[in-house]
Amino acid sequence: MIKFLSISLLLIVFTVPVVDAVPLSDMTGLRVTFPVMTDGHSFIVETTGNLEVTTLDFDKEKKSITLFVMSSIENNSLEIIFSNDLIGGDYTVFLDNNVFTSKLQEGRHSTFVTMEFDGIGKHKIEIFGTTYLDLIEIKDIIDLEISDGYVKEIEGNQSTNSLIFTLFDPGDNGKLSIKLTDNIITPLEDGSFVVMIDGVESDYTIDSDNNMSILFNSNNEKIEIFGTYVIPEFYEVAPLVLATSFIGLIVLKKYKKLFVQ
């Protein structure tokens, strides 16, 4: 169970990209944020409505998100937002153990569930999916070798058309070799790439098998390769934000944590 940590009163205007936003009608709402960590991955589940969400439980075996809410009014409105990668596929929503017909729309990265229901007091909302952690890791796709060091993390940035390699325990004779393919990153118009090590442009070599080699030393932390295109599946999505456009909305914000191993 997750206990309340903090409350703050905010006057706020939200704007959200059209591709991911399914706006709820303007209203005064209680916004609650639940970070969920499961199997080494971090997600955010957010709710906004005219009732209080007291607790969130996540069950990776059941592929379910369960919300416990408390309402002090008869007519309740609630929007729930979560990553498609956390749970996905075909969804079933339950309200107080009964199947509930909700407005459900899936954006590029997030799913939005909008519920309107009656009843003062405690309620339980359950959302079941058919997939769990349905995502692709970059490290599982890129063919690379490294000597005198380790790659701690690989990120893809679609806005800069770059791949970012974060190093761990680098040595003075380090070498990173990457198999370049067009389904990972494509070169600039002249067929070249730009390689930056800790923000400084650096040399690289490409052999006849299209393997790029980059040398680094013990002082280096990050290697970034720039091209003209990084496939969208590798785009690192920023933490989810509330996908509702509340104009002049007074929001009470709660922050709660959930860790699922």
Sheet/helix structural class? mainly beta
Number of helices: 0
How would a textbook summarize the main sheet? Answer: 8 strands, mixed
State the helical fraction.
under 10%
Proportion in β-strands: over 45%
Label the overall shape. elongated
What is the domain total for the residues? 2
Rounded to the nearest angstrom, the distance between the terminal CA atoms is 14 Å
Highest-level CATH class of the largest domain: Mainly Beta
Uncertain regions spanning at least 5 consecutive residues? 1-27, 233-257
Mean pLDDT: 79
| CATH topology group of the largest domain | Chondroitinase Ac, Chain A, domain 3
Series of secondary-structure elements, N-terminal to C-terminal: EEEEEEEEEEEEEEEEEEEEEEEEEE
Radius of gyration: 22 Å
CATH architecture of the largest domain: Sandwich
Topology, number of strands: 26
Structure description:
This protein has 261 residues and is mostly beta strands. It folds into two domains: 7-135 and 238-260, Sandwich (Chondroitinase Ac, Chain A, domain 3); 138-234, Immunoglobulin-like. Helix content is 0%, strand content 54%. It has no helices and 26 strands. It has strands at residues 7-12, 29-38, 41-49, 52-59, 64-71, 75-83, 87-88, 92-95, 98-99, 103-106, 110-118, 121-128, 131-132, 144-147, 150-157, 162-168, 174-179, 185-186, 194-197, 200-202, 205-206, 211-216, 222-226, 229-230, 249-255, 258-260. Strands 1, 2, 3, 6, 10, 11, 25 and 26 form an eight-stranded mixed sheet that branches. Strands 4-5-12-8-9 form a five-stranded antiparallel sheet, with no helix packed on it. Strand 10 (103-106) and strand 11 form a beta hairpin. The radius of gyration is 22 Å and the shape is elongated. The model is unreliable at 1-27 and 233-257 (pLDDT under 50).
